[in-house]
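Methods — Computational structure assignment.
A single polypeptide chain was analysed. Its primary sequence is given first, followed by the predicted tertiary structure written as structure tokens.
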Amino acid sequence: MEISHILCVLCTFCLLGIDAIMFNLSPNEKKCLREEIHKDVLVTGEYDLSDAPNQRTSLKVTDSKGHILYSKDDAKKGKFAFTTEEYDMFEVCFESKVMSGGMVNPRQVDLVMKHGVEAKSYEDLAKAEKLKPLEVELRRLEDLSQSIVDDFSYMRAREEEMRDTNESTHSRVMYFSIFSMACLLSLATWQVLYLRRYFKAKKLIE
């Protein structure tokens, strides 16, 4: 029983989609962060950049196809949110440009990204639907359970896809091997017949 509880806790922590990152962005530098996210998942982000005179930092959130999901030319502090339409690799890029000469220092970037259950605002949901604290917690647990079920369904689908790919590859390799053996046997038979005909023409054999 204790092992099952531990596994549940571990699964819960694995599914808590929170990424808090802090890094320094040098002048005229571009840094990008990439993450794979499942389909129909709410993603929210909150960023805060330190003050840096003579610098302008742009923020752009895109998918693997180049679609811009969020863009800010002079990013200082703000939030963004979007819902994924398909399983994809998403990229968050910060690019700093120096506007004029002089002493320029790196900017500190604080980025907090949430996705899945952690991205939902249950406080706003409680106010909108007038839910009690226990009802809010039950709703959160329900959503978390559903996300676990969706993750297991996705892993099962991926496993089936990989199994089908392996079986298809195995069949193709087997057919290619049979075809190769048939070609080799045909070539060997042709060589024997050709040499026999040649030696008979030269009267080396009867």
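Note: The CA atoms of residues 200 and 206 lie 6 Å apart.
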